[in-house]
Amino acid sequence: METSDIEGDLSSILYTEEQIHAKIAEVARLVERDYAGRDPLLVGVLKGAVMVMADFARELRIPATMDWMAVSSYGSGTKSSGVVRILKDLDSDLHGRDVIIVEDIIDSGLTLSWLLGNLRGRGAASVEIFALLRKPEAATVEVDVKYAGFEIPNEFVVGYGLDFDERYRNLRAIGILAPHVYS
Ligand code: 5GP
Ligand code: MG
Ligand code: MG
Fold it and tell me: Where can this protein be found (predicted)?
């Protein structure tokens, strides 16, 4: 199966690869300006943020390091439970570091608000968030996202790292999954 074939499982494409890269470049320019002379630690949240991290880190023209966390926020079903478990923790000591959390999407906001509190409690000098996508209508808690990419409708999206049952992460575009796929 080629990735162009799995695009047939989308009812619509929200953002093409080109649009995603343009947005990431825009955010990288802001971060370069805000973090000039510092050495931010980019914290990617596995697995959804893998693509954003890879493109964002390479787009940045300032020194930066990368680390990864894996958390589980979903109970049963497709809604965040608010109960977050760390499946894989960071390797880095956060003391005095300027941390930028790199995330694929904010839905309810529960995962990120928990993560923000958790990382701030580890002695970081600062903790900010870059989320590529955000669903404003789905917010259960308000999260202060310094760098926000696209605001999207309250629909389940896949591609560019985002999965449905572990599939579609390798799509280059981001789109809305067609109902025939999950019904
Ligand atoms: P939140 O805690 O903000 O509700 O959601 C956290 C996680 O749920 C996201 O990091 C992402 O992994 C997953 N998620 C939320 N909305 C979507 C969506 O529309 N599509 C996919 N594939 N995952 C989502
Ligand atoms: Mg995520
Ligand atoms: Mg997922």
Answer: Cytoplasm
